[in-house]
């Protein structure tokens, strides 16, 4: 198992801490350095190193667990060692992150985050790439299941770790995926062409109720000029008047002018001729 006192993480984590501090000191020499106001570099590097070490123990335990599964569940010693490594790594990483690292200014000064995520991505990616080469050699060389299972386990475990670390590195570096285009809201037409509400619409242009109607055809709610109306024209109590002697069809008072129907306007006065003030009584 890799999760023992001689694992590579016991050497790589201190190297990460020392190199991280060195590069940040170099970066502070620049006039526009963003780390000049960061007074928590040292504590963040130490806590981040503990998180990385715990993560390595968890990954090593996952590697042993997958080996136990692919070997046919016949070696319980591997299973016990895997669980021990996972439990210890989760405790170290969880406590270091929850009680220490998250209380620092790592969100404001994210250089340590980028260093850690980039280093894990590089190391895990190289390990996965080497395992892939060994897996292809086993497949082409016909070494059997034992020759395939050996490189398959680290390929799966470290490939997944590299994928997660690469996503975190992109996030800490400010790289985000483009937002999907919003779908058009329901009830709106495509673009601004001939839409409901614009162009030739109901209510504007050639409209229902206001369209170009045949001559003489009445609109709904408006009688035609050729039809008598109730209250005008041929009315109860006001019969249709005939031209009167002496006045006849007078200019200025056309038949039915102004008020639709035959009886609009003011009837001729009762002076002269045979007219009776109001119709023929």
Structure commentary:
Helices cover 47% and strands 0% of the residues. It is mostly helical and 281 residues long. It has a domain at 9-29 and 39-172. Helix 1 (9-27) packs antiparallel against helix 2 and helix 2 runs antiparallel to helix 5. The model is unreliable at 188-211, 213-218 and 221-281 (pLDDT under 50).
Secondary structure topology:
Elements: H1 9-27, H2 41-70, H3 76-99, H4 111-141, H5 144-172
Helix pairs in contact: 1-2, 2-3, 2-4, 2-5, 4-5
Give structural attributes.
single chain; about 280 residues; mainly alpha; 5 helices; disordered C terminus
Summarize it.
This protein is mostly helical and 281 residues long. It has five helices and no strands. The model is unreliable at 188-211, 213-218 and 221-281 (pLDDT under 50).
The radius of gyration is 47 Å
Helix proportion: 40-55%
Calculate the mean pLDDT score and round it.
73
What's the total number of strands? 0
Query: Biggest β-sheet, characterized?
Result: none
Number of helices: 5
User: Span between N and C termini?
Assistant: 125 Å
The helix-strand sequence is HHHHH
Question: Helix/strand/pairing class, anyone?
Answer: mainly alpha
- The best one-word shape is elongated
**Low-pLDDT stretches:** 188-211, 213-218, 221-281
- Share in β-strands: under 5%
